[in-house]
Amino acid sequence: MKYCFRFVCIVFLYLSISFDSDAQLLNDPASIKMIQNSLDNIYNYEFDEAEKVIAQVEAKYPNHPVNYILDSFVLYWKYLPIKDNTVKSKEYIQLLNQCLAAINKKFGKDSKNPEAVFYTMVARGYMALLYNYRGELMNAAGEGKKAYNALTEGLNLISKNSEFYFTAGMYNYYVEIYPEEHPIIKPVMWFFKKGDRALGLKQIDIATKLGTITRAESCYYLARIYLKHEGKPDKAILYSQKLVDLYPQNVIYRMTQIESLILTGRYDQAIPSINILKKNTTSFYPLAWRTFQGLILEKDEKNDAAAQKEYLLALRTPFDDQYTKEYYAMSYAGLARIADRAGNKSKAREYYKKCLDKSEYVLTINEAKAYK
User: Fold this and answer.
1) CB 311 within 8 A of CB 331
2) What confidence score (pLDDT) does residue 215 get?
3) In this predicted model, what pLDDT tens digit does every residue of 320-331 receive, in sequence order?
4) pLDDT in tens, 206-248
5) Residue 53 CB: number of other CB atoms within 10 A?
6) What residue segments make up the domains of the chain, in order of their start?
7) What gap in Å lies between CA 333 and CA 264, rounded to an integer?
8) Residue 89 and which of 14, 83, 283, 299 are 20 to 30 A apart at CA?
């Protein structure tokens, strides 16, 4: 249940620091503001500033579980993708285990205190995310299962805090869309509480407006949903552009913005962001910007030869399953279109087959499947 793991992993941090309980930290507006500021710094890759703010929280609330969560969050974004960094992955897991130990010390083992439950869920959720993308699916499933009950409890907590719109929306949407796209898992979905796809989209949109701590994640996931599952890139632009405006140094958010612009034919608007993205010449980033350049050369400039070169260069870059796998599929689809225009239908079919092996986007899948 990859997508369940993915959104469980992120939401409990926000819920845990915004839940309406009697905990001292949660009744301290100054500390909540510091936590919000640290998250904004992290999203904008201002890690030194984030660590200074986190140090203030740690000084005020020593050994509090949230300190380990924030420290792990810095690692997650600073060493993206952390799953590929053996040393930092180990440190990351250690911080999350320290968080669990701090929860037991503060609230007692297996405490039903809402704050304790939420901190437990974010720690286990982040571990599930890491295990999932490292291919350790049994470990990921174990952590995700432990988070599920608390997640469903959050469906009833919207009236207590607007941050819960994100949790409820993500659950309502993904519990419906995931089995639709992966029928093989339908037999194991019987124990999941029923969702509502349309309501889920509405709730996440509300979170982009009313959420304070969940605002960025709400915008990011809603943009991804409209790009990937709904096939409506025009709707994704609203949220991806907002993210870039808020966090201009966040490369992942910028990639989503570029993708939204290109898929709606706004090529001129995409070029400045592509030029910024091209400064990133290591890791999986060249795959992204070469794919984007190929799409513009093909679709806007009608230069198949130059586009083909970019697509082929893109495919020489290893993809990351979490962030750039779809760009592999897009490059193969671009090569297929070019081969078709050159009259080489067998080559086009070959490229579309490779595209389908990677693609998870409804628009790309439909294009590949429709080719005869």
Assistant:
1) yes
2) 86
3) 888 999 999 999
4) 999 987 777 888 999 999 999 999 999 999 999 999 999 999 9
5) 21
6) 1-154, 157-251, 278-370
7) 17
8) 14
> Could you tell me how far CA 267 lies from the centroid of its own chain?
24
Other Cβ atoms closer than 10 A to 196: 16
Query: 278-370, what's its fold?
Result: 1.25.40
> Considering Cα of 157, then 64, then 26, then 17, what sign does the dihedral take?
negative
Q: Alpha helix locations (H) across 79-163?
A: 86-107, 114-133, 137-153
Instruction: Return d(Cα 223, Cα 236) in angstroms, integer.
Output: 4
User: Is 0.70 surpassed by the pTM of this model?
Assistant: yes
9 φψ region: left (φ > 0), alpha (ψ -120 to 50), beta (else): alpha
Residue that the structure tokens 């592509």 belong to: 274
The tokens for 212 are 């304070």
Quick one: tokens of 185?
């898992």
Reading the block at residue 4, the tokens are 């369940």
Q: Look-up: residue for tokens 């990859």?
A: 2
Size of the chain in residues: 372
